[in-house]
Amino acid sequence: MRIVLAFFAGLVFGLGLLLSGMADPAKVLGFLDLAGAWDPSLAFVMAGAIAVGALAFALARRRTKALLGDAMRLPTATAVDRRLVVGSLMFGAGWGLAGFCPGPALVALGLGVPQALIFVAAMLAGMGLFELIESRRKH
Length: 139
Known about the structure:
Helices cover 71% and strands 0% of the residues. By secondary structure, the protein is mainly α.
């Protein structure tokens, strides 16, 4: 049952990314081009996502168990540290250069967009490099 629900959640998320234009790097780059032909439409998508997320977190904070019965585990970190800032800068640079972030890149990869293959390969390499650095740092 969990796998079916996970599939439908992913399907709805992917369809939302497609319908909103987030899987189109040209649309994303148009949104990020503040000094040129700026396309503000994704700001409305982001505002809607933030509103839905804020409501979901507000409701989740009142619960002790998730809908499927697992313990509710919400993020507890509140510190803004160097790792968060550097990671955010790297994410933003990648988003600005490629027009993709991880979710939309996977959707575009499923659609056969060639740039998505390059982005996803680079993303996976970066994740692997991070894990390697973290494992060495902990030892």
